[in-house]
Amino acid sequence: MLTRTYPIQDDVNEMSVFLFGARKTGKSTYLRMLYPDAPYIDLLNTTIRNAYRNRPASLYDQFKGRDANTIVIIDEIQEVPDLLNEVHRLIAEFDIRFILCGSSARKLKRNGYNTLGGRAYPCTFYPLVSAEIPDFDIDRAVNHGMLPQHYLSSNPTRLLSAYIDVYLQQEIKAEAIVRKVDVFERFLEVAALTDGEIVNYSNIASDCQINSVSIKQYFEILQDTLIGYMIPAYTKVVKRKLVQAPRFYYFDAGVANYLLHRKNMVRGTIEYGHAFEHIIIQELVAYLGYTHDRRRLSYWRTYAGNEVDAIIGDAELAIEIKSAEEAKPKHFKGLHTFHEEHPSCRLLLVSLDPVSRVQDDIELFYVYDFLRQLWAGQLF
Length: 380
Fold this sequence. Notes:
Blueprint: H1 8-12, E1 16-20, H2 27-34, E2 40-42, H3 46-54, H4 58-63, E3 71-75, H5 83-94, E4 97-102, H6 106-110, E5 120-124, H7 138-144, H8 148-152, H9 156-173, H10 181-193, H11 201-208, H12 212-224, E6 228-231, E7 247-250, H13 253-259, H14 270-290, E8 297-301, E9 307-312, E10 317-321, H15 333-341, E11 346-351, E12 357-359, E13 362-366, H16 367-375
Parallel strand pairs: 1-4, 1-5, 2-3, 3-4, 10-11, 11-13
Antiparallel strand pairs: 6-7, 8-9, 9-10, 12-13
């Protein structure tokens, strides 16, 4: 039994909320379960969508005079962004609380629609996290990803294929976001090759046979449609010259697996190691997002090749991620190098080594112990 635990109630008790998340993360199911009696407007329903498009002011007529703090859910708000003017009026005049869901903020951001002037708090809904799965299995997460339906499936490849097809149809083709969908589809696969790697726009442009300006726009599309995100480089230079370019990650390891044709991965392989790192980064991104922790997640890499996978805040915590089943001194090199420049930083190594311990001033965490302490708020 999977139970989403994102505490959106805490946000809605304060003000209205923009709740954005990629398709199939479970936003709608979660909100219907949490607020079963709240009015629910589904803008994916063609009849409902067309009615509000023809007369956005009908939303105001529908809810004016309701009690303060009445909760109204509007799903896929980007489908009828003109409704935001009426939402604004209802919040200002009657203090109605709206939960405005969407799988893309692109229309709102690109076309300058009413973003409610600070009257709605922006939140993100992520794929499942380990704390939401009672019998969480890291090997299953690595192979299936963490979208609810996919994690539970015995055949995630079929579901992931359908997921990418729906994304291309509904987000890319339907909205005419790019002119050549076949080129964008090729880009999705090439971008997967850089998943968890430093982004080099020129190399990707060469592989896709288009210019680097278009590649940058394509990456922006992935971020606007919540299919991917960039992890910035930690750029505070002390002694060593640092890489400045960001790393790219798809929003879920399962999507990267599908695009890279990775399946049935076993421990000890390079492919498993990449997906394992992705899952840990996913967990860190979700934890910082759900707890509204403003500390930045970054990575650190020198031009000499020393690197650390995750830096929290201003060198408060450095985390190296290895899928090895035995943590060895060779895995500590990046952390030791980083510590030379940031001696007050706490050092962690997350691995499949089942014995959590301290070695060479580095805290070695078995992956399950790390995730347990992360979601208990005991790491930072």
